[in-house]
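Progress narrative, work stream C.
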Amino acid sequence: MTLIIPFGSFFIVMVLSISLRIPQASGAGTVVKTLFVDLNGGGDFKCIQAAINSVPDNNKIWTRIHVAAGVYREKVMIPQSKEYILLEGEGSQHTSIEWGDYANDPKNDTTATSATFFSLADNFVAKYIAFKNTYNGGTKTAQALAALVSGDKSSFYNCSFTSIQDTLSDAFGRHYYLGCHIEGAFDFIFGNGQTIFQECTIWTVSGPTSPGYVTAQGRSTPLAHGGFVFKSCKLDGVTKTYLGRAWRGYARVIFYETYMSDIVVPLGWDAWFNKGHENLITFAESGCTGEGSNTAGRVPWEKTLTAAELKYFTDITYIDNEGWLAAQPI
């Protein structure tokens, strides 16, 4: 899997959040400006990228971009220079961003540049919106990202991410996903983010072969902070799957108090190219339920974390020990 991050120019029914444990604080960030996007011309812009482009470089005020219901067929990028954007739809079943690029297509896209949505800036929030890669290669499924997230201090609430292979590139930075729906077949959550997925639905779809892989985590050194933590999530779908395989030698993935249906294969994990060095990999489960959570047949090198280690990785301070989540306008 090749990951090339583009850093230059590139080119509801409203879901109630009170049922989810979203961090709240009296000092939460305040939206200073709101821009409206409407395909039918009822807003300030008809396309999302135009609204983003209107935000000044080096922006320091929270700017909401509210996107009316509709299917927005465009590639969308939040460049590094445009921080403090809140991208808000009207429900992931109603507002979607869709495109169909894939790796090694006639335009010479790479895995990363195939993404429908790019979030490269720090301090970003998305709510109630869907990100879809519509490429469907049948028996020739290729890497086709729905989203690539490489900015620090980024959060997603009640969003959905849809593709088959490499759906969500959680590339770099500290990230939080709450109440999101993420679906795919192969390595469909991958990268080296330092990330908590909480109360999310992880859903497998049909691919050209089975079983697939939920995660391909890319932690590459022993001191790197990256790791994926799935907390109080639901893992289900239509295709058998491994929980993950080690994209890099120090891969770290933890499933905590998560429901797993019988789609999980007994071995659970794959060392991939790191066979013989499994002791360096941190793949762990704790407090999970459902038929797929039976660890009797798991690989012998699956880690058992101590109570202190579990607390460290599952507490929100793993990604936020400074209060950045509470400072966002969620």
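Work stream C, second folded protein:
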Amino acid sequence: MVENRRHRMQALLAADGADRRASAVSLACERCVLELSVSGAGATVLSKTPGGNGNGNGLSPSRGLVHATNPVSAGLEDLQLTVGEGPCLDAFATGGPVLISDLSAATARWPAFTPAACELGAAAVFSFPLQVGVVRLGSLDLYRDTTGPLTRVELADALILSDLATQGVVADLDGHRTEDVSWLADPHAQVHQATGMVQVQLDSTTDVALMRLRGYAFTHNMPLADVARRVVERSLRFTDTEDGQ
């Protein structure tokens, strides 16, 4: 039965791709919305470095949005990068799905992410790691604007689509190392560069530099990508005594 559903999904993605030029990852995200009764989907590439950033996930700032089906999905992806917590990061850290059918009940788990995500319009979130064997490349993230779990069939299809999305990410990497997100068009790729610049400005560790970037984004209600762009453009500089100027 699983193989039959996988063949069906492959056929649907092939038909979707025949209608227009689009990446396999974007097609998988859009098919999630059509098949899984979710409101939106996004796929993100992440990388892991030894030591991590202190949040327990072992994540480096190298992260980039591959595709989001709507502005809410894009906002949820950016929010997790800004506050450093959420289902995407947990799925990547653990290598297993994160299935939250009522997001409002997850405040203790994600105190910064949950209220802001609910304000964006998410009532339930489901994240699946994009991985090949033990190598994790990122996550496929779904949200629903009403509470409720995925059905057994929807969960099976989500796992299939996350695997097909992983194949698309592998194809897009095309020889790049997993920590190199320069191939992404999304401005999140600037976060890594900005973190390095702030690290030099503060004579600090990478973890401290990333926390300062996140803190500035959170307190000024800005997407982290916009803060990174300003740092890279040298219109924002961090000092030891100020958040930025």
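Residues 188 and 225 are 5 Å apart (CA to CA). No further action is required on this item.
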